[in-house]
Amino acid sequence: MNERIEKLKRFLEQSPDDCFLNHALALEWIKLNDDQQARILFERNLHHDPGYIATYYHLGKLLERMGENDRAVLLYEQGMTEAKKAGDQHTYNELQAAYEDLVY
């Protein structure tokens, strides 16, 4: 297992609900082609903090790869709502583009 994963796991032992750490670990799992582990972490973030908007794009893309396009569309829609609430136009635009690529 890679060194970054081990470090992130140690940090998460002290702060298991840290969305940034969970997100970073999920991205490491994706690099190793372990989408299931990544999904667990992204979904944990959504459950713990739906306002952590970085999760929506990456989980949506992961769901697309897994063939769950309907769920990805819903996630992009939810993410756009959260991004708008947060005033994050950049993330909103990314989510909108991903949504449009999938729907149209």
Write down how many β-strands occur, each being a DSSP E stretch of 2 or more residues. Answer: 0
Which blocks of ≥5 consecutive residues have pLDDT under 50?
none
Based on the coordinates given, report the CATH architecture. Alpha Horseshoe
Question: C-alpha Rg, in Å?
Answer: 14 Å
Q: Please indicate the percent range of residues in DSSP E strands (runs of 2 or more).
A: under 5%
| Structural shape | globular
The CATH superfamily is: Tetratricopeptide repeat domain
| SSE string, helices as H and strands as E | HHHHHH
> How many domain units?
1
Instruction: Say what the CATH topology is.
Output: Serine Threonine Protein Phosphatase 5, Tetratricopeptide repeat
Q: How confident overall, as mean pLDDT? A: 96
Determine the oligomeric state from the structure.
single chain
Q: What about the largest sheet? A: none
Task: Give the number of helices.
Answer: 6
What's the CATH first level?
Answer: Mainly Alpha
User: Percent helix among the residues?
Assistant: over 70%
**Alpha carbon gap, first and last residue:** 39 Å
Index terms:
104 residues, mainly alpha, Serine Threonine Protein Phosphatase 5, Tetratricopeptide repeat, 81% helix, globular
